[in-house]
Predict the structure.
Amino acid sequence: MFIKSLIKKGVYHDSVSLMKAAKELNGISGVVDSAVVMATRENKNILKNSGLYSAELDKSGDSDLVITVKAKDAGAAQRGLKQAEEILNRKNPPSGAGTAAGGAKAKGLDNAIGLLGGANLAVISVAGRFAGKVAADCLARGLNVMLFSDNIPLETEIELKKTAVKNGLLLMGPDCGTAIINGAPLAFANAVNRGAIGIVAASGTGLQEVSTLISNEGSGISQAVGTGSRDVKREVGALTLIQGLKALAADKDTALILIVSKPPHPKVLAKILKEVREIKKPVVSIMLGGDAKLPGKKDFYPAHTLEEAALKAVCLARDGNVHKAKERLFDINTGVQKAAAAAAGNKTKQQKYLRGLFSGGTFVSEAQAVLGPVLGRLWSNAPLDKKYKLSDSLRLRENSVIDMGEDEFTVGRPHPMIDFTLRNKLLVSEAAKPETAVILLDVVLGYGSNMQPLEDILPAIRAAFRANKTLSIAASVTSTETDPQVRSKVVDGLRKAGVIVMPTNASACRLAGEIVRKLIARGSGRGAREPGN
Amino acid sequence: MKVFGYGDSIPRGTFQLHSAFENAINFQGRKGVVVSLVSRKTGNGPMNIVLKHLPRGARRLKVTKFKFYVDENCLEADPEKNYDSAIPVLPLDPLLFRKNLNSLKGFLAASAPAKSMCFLFSVSAEAAFKSPFERKILKKMKEGVRLFETGAYVKGARALRGLGFGLTPSGDDFLCGCLTGLSFVEACLDLDLSEILNAVYDNALTENIISGSFTWCAYNGRVNEKTRGLLAALAGTGKARLLSSSRAALKRGHTSGADFCAGLVYGCEAGLRAA
């Protein structure tokens, strides 16, 4: 008789699978006896008494699984062991500290591609120092890539993108946190309607804002391609953005293209506009803090805010009448004026500043673009004008807007879109300051974000209002009704708590700016800017 | 993630993924504590957090006074959803109770899955133990239970712990059931069965932390929803209720539910003998 044993450490199969494996094992030709049991002392004693024990089982413990086979020949014993493993891995893959049930565990990229036949996109989220190689391996195997990882050298990014372009593949990233491909939200993204508007964005939060606005206005997204935060830098040359534009231009389901970006390097902007000129579909463009003009192309529509860009896209997609976007913006602004008049009326003489606490970096840029002309000097940890960089991001001064998604806040801590703890603390401490008139917030929801936003933020909001009874809190909620958090629930909850919820980040910023402007005018008797500007 | 309920024995701390199955994801903390995220199918238990959808891929669980953190996701611990896992203290008529225990034995004999310890109630069920190894397991189980029946609780527990099939071996589940039965009788009849409880518990533990967690709960009189229902039915008069709660109690693992019920019967009978 031949006895062969296998010890499986740190993997756990449910009892049904173990029983099934044991039953099938005993049915194998040539197998005289077998056992599939946990290697407890008592079971091992039985194995010894049954003649199923081999010396290697000395090393096994209570939490280990033992498969042992007694057969007429060595071949049958080996086959038995192999079959037992296959049976266990078959329907119910093992689970342990390194895996979780519900997903196949692959032993490498080729194995993963084999397990999921037909996959053509890899989403990569590994430490930056490994991510470049993993992305290169994926591209070499003909996969498009969404590279969520950051901390990848710029040179590596350029190489990867050149390889992707050469092979007709898309490389979204590095630091690409949002995309919507064929209706599937990837990483931090929202459940939006499908439709005819294609988006290519060098900004995750920007993509979320425009896609949710488009969806909430009744229109929909064909594809949303993320490019990564450095794509429009001079060195990278907008390789992914241009690829995205080409793909959307050729896509039969895309009737209109929306570009979302921070201001590219001028040479890169020229490249992008050259590509846009060739596109035979309408193009809406928002380059926050910058300006893109394309004289000679009739169906090119620049915008100054994400809100304006989204509304223009919706109106164009609906009936080609872009002027209706102005009407919609007018309605929103009427709401802003009304809310500002009501909110500014009850402030104390000391209250004069706004404090913006943002989780999305693009919203900080948009806040500066909207508030700069109204309020002048605006301090930030991510300022558009380096003159106004806060020396300490936690010590806000005058009118300030901070990006709490910056590295200084997120090292060793979940992103503020997931964990509101730090922002809540700041919300309460800023509210308690007598000079704070209005606090500005963004609440970005969808997949990957905080699934219990109200439960997490409301206690802080209530505490803020207790600390400052004449405080105003203005917020926008980037979300849709079909997001897991359900937009209307969150909006209602915030409103009930006294927050002024505006339909967009830009309008929330305008509201906050208008409140402060009214307070300045009240104080100085003029509608002037802050001194020093 | 919506929390439907959470057990009252969940300690605070940080727990790492131990194992994950269709209806439960187990997290291990210090000193072998196991807290589980479970589906509604599994239901409330002393160390369970019941969720609508189990977060596949979850790696870490953190428990604070008012919140649960599953990786980066924060779940509110609403006090109204706290599950009271204390063994129910009910008026217990010993005659009626014995009658119901006999009914349960009959049900287990007819309905328990093959190779569970419910062969104790049906000789024909022994036929399911076919291979030489299985026959040896059967023999050892019978020996262990015989020791238990004769009051040799220490030897009986040692013979049964870690014995048998399944991720939580049959012997471990049987001993859990025993401890639960003893705790129930002790509480309802206001007895002191600590000597038997300690004898069993002190000799029931192995290094299998999942078994260990269940055993600890049983020793401390903490039960899950299905067991609560079964105990209430055993103390009551409703036949239909006894039948439905027995069926529900079988639905754990492959033989775990049945092994537990077998042990529950033996624990209750041991408690009644002591009374």
About this structure: Chain A has three domains: 2-90, 176-321, 329-524.
